Amino acid sequence: MTKTVLYARVSTADQTVDHQKTAAEAKGYVFDEVVTDDGVSGSVSLKDRPQGKRLLDLLRRGDTLVVRWVDRLGRDYNDVTDTIRDFMRRGVIIKTIINDMEFDGSRTDPMGMALRDAMMTFMAGMAQAQLEATKDAQRIGIAHAQTKEPEKFLGRKPTFDGDQLVEVMRLLGLGTSNSEIARKTGLVRQTIIRIKADPAKAAQQVASWEQAEELRKSPKKRRG
């Protein structure tokens, strides 16, 4: 009998497990089990986390693993992709709460496998970009990230957000024309061309701006 498992890594800066569970249930998920690594840094590989080890032993072929996003599954680009590939080799289906992505290890059709692998690589790259953006913001300082003029250190704000970027990459993977993607996403054709030419740069831009805006929304700590 197959099962659906929610995995959450929670650190002091992340969302709560309850928040992630509620967000997933709002999309129709029903869980047989919830596995949590509480207070574990994202710099630790899944296999080295206390509950990550348990998760690897728990899931079997046909089971579904639900995570907030692929960055929950590893410490960087290579670690995330290795972890996802390991689960797919076992026949585990991975689904993300954010962007509703699916990585199905049971697929055997060449086109489906190619699209799945392309999206896996891209999403892991997005996770890495977010990590780098966070490090950059920390180096620059929260005060700068909270300024009214983030363009001074981030450059011009991109005309697309993370959801649009993921959709552009999905459609590009399907061979959709630039003009059709522009029509479907509401972006201009030239933007699609720039994303296609350098998706890593596009991911970095989005991640940096999203991180800066999140920091700007955070209440400033009072000095005691």
Q: Keywords for this structure?
A:
10 helices; disordered C terminus; alpha/beta; 2 domains; globular; Rossmann fold
The value of Rg in angstroms is 18 Å
Largest sheet: 5 strands, mixed
> Helical amount among residues, as a percent range?
40-55%
* Adjacency order of strands in the biggest sheet: 2-1-3-4-5
The secondary-structure element order is: EHEHEHEEHHHHHHH
| Helix/strand/pairing category | alpha/beta
Strand content: 5-15%
Domain Resolvase/invertase-type recombinase catalytic: 3-149
Keywords: DNA integration, DNA recombination, DNA-binding
Protein name: Recombinase
Family: Belongs to the site-specific recombinase resolvase family.
Note down, in words, how this protein is organized.
A five-stranded mixed beta sheet has the order 2-1-3-4-5, with helices on both faces. The model is unreliable at 220-224 (pLDDT under 50). It has two domains: 4-104, 3-Layer(aba) Sandwich (Rossmann fold), CATH 3.40.50.1390; 110-217, no CATH class. The protein is globular, with a radius of gyration of 18 Å. Strand 1, helix 1 and strand 2 form a beta-alpha-beta unit. Helix content is 53%, strand content 11%. The longest helix is centred in the middle third of the chain and has 31 residues, at 110-140. It has ten helices and five strands, in the order E-H-E-H-E-H-E-E-H-H-H-H-H-H-H. It starts with a strand and ends in a 7-residue tail after the last helix. Helix 4 crosses helix 10 (199-217). It has helices spanning 17-25, 50-58, 77-89, 110-140, 142-145, 151-154, 162-173, 178-185, 189-197, 199-217; strands at residues 4-10, 33-38, 64-67, 93-96, 102-104. By secondary structure, the chain is of the alpha/beta class.
